[in-house]
Design brief:
65% helix; mainly alpha; elongated
Length: 253
Amino acid sequence: MRFRFFRPLHGWREFIHEIIIVVIGVLLALAGAQMIEDWRWNWQVGSTRQAIANELEEAANQAALRISVEDCNRDRIGELAARLKASNGRWIADPMPLATGAQPTPHWDNRSMGRVYSVPLVGWSQDAWDTAKSSGVLDHMSRKEAASYSEVYGEIAAIRDYQNQELLLESSLSFLSADQQLDGQSRNDALGKLGQLDALNATNAGLSSLMIDQMKSLHLQVDRPRNSTLLKETIAHQRRYRGNCVKDVQVQF
């Protein structure tokens, strides 16, 4: 029996040459696809990094706002606590005092039961961070950078949770905005809630300060002059609403 081996039409040399060309073509195609994939992720990381920077810029200003009204809140808690302790059963309405000439905030201040304490209400958004976690972008950042973002957003989540607690406590004290007979149980209950508000006010101001310090290490790309102007306007608005107890706070990125 005779065996016939495959023999290329134009010789082995040309056949091997064609194989090499095909292999090189496949390798180039794979390398090109990888380059495109790398470029896509680099672009997405850059886009996400800027979205997070914009979100944290806003959060830093909200944190600065929180610090700026810390003394106002503490002083107000002290006033209400002193009056409650001195009360002998008769309570005279003590609504939230506003700065001279200040106008109540529509919807927020216009209530059937008046306010006696004012929590600075801010959104504390983390949409950009949630998108980064769900899209897989964090896998293409350094562990140190991702961990730094995670730490800051952890502070934001804590402040948002504490703020929600403050809002509930604030509402539960609305009864102090009306004249009434105040029994010992009601007085002690109100004092307990004021104590909780005092702790939350200090905690949120402390967390806000910590968060701002943490942001410095992130080297966020933000419009610093614009941010400074917006923060000054925000604090000035609070001072027109609350009075001179509002202190100036700066954010250095």
